[in-house]
Amino acid sequence: MLLASSKLACAATPLLRAQRTASTRLALLTASSWTRAQAAPLQNDQRRGVSSSGTRPCLGLGSLPSAPSTRAGLHQHATSSSTPSMSATEREECSARLSVPTRSVSTQSTPVTVQAPVQPQAAKKTENDAFNVDHLLHLKEADQAWLQKLYDGILQQDRSALARGITLVESWRRDHRRVAQNLLDRILDVLHDRWSHVQSLGSRAVSTVTLKNNQTTTTLPTPFRIGLSGPPGAGKSTFIETFGMFLVNQGLRVAVLAVDPSSSVSGGSILGDKTRMTELSRNDAAYVRPSPSRGSLGGVTRNTSDAIVLCEGSGYDVIIIETVGVGQSETAVADMVDLFTLIVPPGGGDELQGIKKGIVELADFVIVNKADGDLLPAARKAKSEYTSAMKLLRPRTASWTPEIAMLSSLDSTGLADAWKLMLQFYDSQMKGGEFFLKRSQQRKRLMWKHVSDGILERFQAHPEVSRVIAGAEQQVMQGLVAPGLAADELLDRFR
């Protein structure tokens, strides 16, 4: 019986050798996919007796490599090789390591187990962090022709093209907004070159006033944005008419963006500011654009800043923004202009109490209007009281202390003195480097304003949210659900 078993084992030996030879060739073919460049740095680790992962190589695997997809065959070969047998602990460690996808590299020395290469995280992060808006600048062929026509017209100082451009940026249609943002981007490229040139002049970038043939001419290195605010009845529109004609006579081109209040019921607006600026609106060197507030807080429309950019691109030297009046959020205009001016009528302390303190704190310049006739004594008293009040407030900038001026829009008394003070503010900001720094901060805040508006718009249009908004509002109004809890539920549906 033992003799028969021995003969059977001897007969099976050539077959087992043939199987091991085939397994060896298959393993070598699999390992040949690794290049010499990849295998070379591993030899140092092999000499030290450790793998690239910092662990001792599995000696029980022998000198024959194997691909990860043939773990079972590799284990069978390891147990049948001529290498020394492993202890139970080493066998468990190797089995645990085999449970992770690995690749084995074959050299003349002991094999080393190397983990599959992983994509560098730093490179992936850099690619994801790159900010690029090129994909947003592609338009349809018809929109490109429309955009080019508006762009050329605005740069050529065509008032009708400017009017169409402002109408475009005020539109709420999504396709119009895409064209409008492309237009603004191209205009900003032109303005950026102008701003860079002015900044390179340093302290020399200031206003100049010349007198020729008894005619005073003012030159500004970059457009001057002036915001006007004040209570109803302060005479803002009359002041703009007189002040605008004064600037035109100084050789400057003036653009006026007047925001008219919209009805809370119908949403309509009379747009009557332009009718009170008859002489200025007919002048070729001026452009008056009334816009409805559409319920915007503070009377500043959603795209007033965009309209300012288009006016500057069209070559206007002074852009005046008139707002609806003093309100809780009227301070929005101060965040888009260079000089924020508060216009008040004669009224002294009573009027000072009626104006929001926040508006006074934001004012760079205060004008007491209607300083004529019987109101002249009251105007002088108001100027004195405002001068005392402004001393208690902290200045907005280190280079300028708010000034108080008194003038009459009817007979133009004090208008030249007020303009002189405005130019002093302009020059102080330019010399101190605060002018362009302030504008850059305003653009950053405007970006986040657009982000918040866009998020709210997309939130309300989300199908899961819009379906339950009415029910959520109803339950909150009835006191059945806490407002915060309802908001959390809506936000969860938005995810």
UniProtKB/TrEMBL annotation:
GO molecular function, one term: GTPase activity
Ranges where the AAA+ ATPase domain occurs: 222-394
Record field: compositional bias (Low complexity): 78-88
Keyword field: GTP-binding, Hydrolase, Nucleotide-binding
Claim: Transmembrane is one of the keywords in the record: no
PANTHER family cross-referenced by the UniProt entry: METHYLMALONIC ACIDURIA TYPE A PROTEIN, MITOCHONDRIAL, METHYLMALONYL-COA MUTASE
Any Pfam family hit: MeaB
Name of the protein: Mmaa protein
Residues covered by region (Disordered): 39-123
Subunit-structure text: Homodimer. Interacts with MMUT (the apoenzyme form); the interaction is GTP dependent.
Family named by the database record: Belongs to the SIMIBI class G3E GTPase family. ArgK/MeaB subfamily.
Function field: GTPase, binds and hydrolyzes GTP. Involved in intracellular vitamin B12 metabolism, mediates the transport of cobalamin (Cbl) into mitochondria for the final steps of adenosylcobalamin (AdoCbl) synthesis. Functions as a G-protein chaperone that assists AdoCbl cofactor delivery from MMAB to the methylmalonyl-CoA mutase (MMUT). Plays a dual role as both a protectase and a reactivase for MMUT. Protects MMUT from progressive inactivation by oxidation by decreasing the rate of the formation of the oxidized inactive cofactor hydroxocobalamin (OH2Cbl).
Extent of Polar residues compositional bias: 39-55, 101-118
Keyword match Nucleotide-binding: yes
Cellular compartments per GO CC: cytoplasm
